[in-house]
Amino acid sequence: MLHKNEIYEGLVSGLGSNGEGIVKIEGATVFVPFCLIGERVRFAVLKCSGNIAYGKLVCVLQPSADRAAPRCPVFGKCGGCDLQHVKYPAQLEFKRGAVANALAKIGGITFPVGAAVPCEREYGYRNKLALPVEARGGETVAGFYAPRSHRIVPTDDCYIQSDWAAEVIAAVKAFGSAALRHIVVREIKGAFIFALVCRKIIDASPLIERLKEKFAKFTLLINVNSSEGNAIFGDEWHTVYGDGFFGAEEFGIKYRAGANTFLQVNDGMRAKLYSAVLDEADAGVTAIDLYSGGGLLTAMLAKKCGCAYGIEVVREASLCADELKNSNGLSGKMFNVCGKVEEEIDKVFARTDGRRIIVCDPPRKGMERSAVKAISRSGADKIILVSCNPATLARDLGLLVGTLQECDGQLVKCAAPQSEYEIASITPFDMFPQTRHIETLICLKRKQPK
Questions:
Q1: Could you tell me if 351 and 323 are in contact, meaning their C-beta atoms sit under 8 angstroms apart?
Q2: Sign of the torsion angle spanned by Cα atoms 67, 72, 78, 82
Q3: Which end of the chain is more exposed for a tag (fewer CB within 10 A), N or C?
Q4: CA 342, 336, 301: angle at the middle one, nearest 5?
Q5: Got the DSSP string for 103-157?
Q6: At what angle are helices 315-327 and 296-305 packed, to 10 degrees?
């Protein structure tokens, strides 16, 4: 029996879904972060619950050949990265395995998962920085939250961010307003959008002057958020320098982005992922893009397929999609519907005929059950799923291919799946190196009648 605060030694036999090491000792399974399979480690037990325990790594007695030296001095304290201690090829294999394990354990799916598509940049890949800030002991502290907390771990740089992050952090510390809560930065093709999240309106001119020394093209906004909730942005916006947005072009589609516009944080991997989606989209079909956001992918599908519908619940995003449609001359080819996917999907199906494909990129929580059912009975030629959460992907995909069934409100695995669709491919894309997170692209095809 293990005891809290006691020190133990053991062999790491596996990895958990978050990348933590699994040590089986004295009848218990202990989860110890920052360990690798095959390592002998010394750890302290922090919490015990029955035969499950959680530990803290004290030292590695016998390291794995896959162990790497973390680049960041606050790795292990900051909650941003999980895998800097792992060499990159082993990170990719862990993520491929994490997708396969989630599909098998949760969804009852045993289809082979392809090798993870690597990112060309193991570090310095993020185009967006969201930095919490607070006044502490008469000084301005900027950094990132510790795991499972809102305690800021101070830092002068972030190595998964682009090389401008250190300049931004230094400028924020020098500015030092007690009303400042966050600074959010987005880089778009060499132009920068700075958003200061403050408890009240402040004079940002000293910060603007400092930013001018390092950044040739930028705009700055102030967002007022005096609430105590977890949301970074409030509803009140003020543009204090520049136009508040920048335009860009991708895959021949011109778009406009602001501080609150959703874009994938990794430009290079976004291009690879969207290219893979477009490769599956045939000319002459109707594409239906679920959870379509600001409409960038919808526009790409409209341009290739000839007709695309986007369904998005956030009104501001849907309005941006309308603007994008008009600025790219896609009227008559691109149609944006504002509403919940589960409420609008059948209406869109009723408006379309002929060959159809469905593209679906839901939030981390996955799809509503009614949306999954509507997709299942849609008769679409192809279903293309994009997911950033292997667990909810496994649930939704299991329902689509019939390995999961709903029984009295509960999901149960089905030994004899019945579905019109079968999996054609499963491909992870490493959008987030040095972290446990993975984006996955799944292609489903309609079964040919026997």
A1: no
A2: negative
A3: C
A4: 100
A5: HHHHH---PPPPPPBPPS-SSS-BSEEEEEEEEETTEEEEEEEPTTS--EEE-S-
A6: 40
Range with top average pLDDT, 142-151, 246-255, 313-322, 428-437: 428-437
Q: Which residue reads 């799944």 in tokens?
A: 442
The pLDDT, as a whole number, for residue 450 is 56
CA gap 441, 359 in Å, rounded: 10
Q: Which SS3 state, helix, strand or coil, does residue 361 take?
A: coil
Query: Residues 82, 62: contact at Cβ < 8 Å?
Result: no
Q: What angle do CA 249, 277, 311 make, to 5 degrees?
A: 75
Which spans in 368-437 are helix H?
A: 369-376, 390-401
41/58 Cα distance (integer angstroms) = 8
Q: How far apart are CA 368 and CA 108, in angstroms?
A: 19
Report the 10 Å Cβ neighbour count for 406. 12
Label residue 255 left, alpha or beta by phi (over 0 means left) and psi (-120 to 50 means alpha). beta
- Which string of DSSP letters, residue by residue, matches 176-190? --TTEEEEEEEEETT
User: Which of the 8 DSSP states describes residue 447?
Assistant: P
| 77-93 tens-digit pLDDT | 999 999 999 999 999 99
Q: What is the pTM of this model?
A: 0.92
432 class by beta-carbon count within 10 Å (0-12 exposed, 13-18 middle, 19+ buried): buried
Residue whose token pair is 């200061």: 196
Q: Per residue in 288-299, pLDDT tens? A: 999 998 899 999
C-beta separation of 421 from 444 below 8 A? yes
238 DSSP β-pair partners: 222
Kindly indicate the confidence band of residue 230, based on its pLDDT and cuts at 50, 70 and 90.
Answer: confident
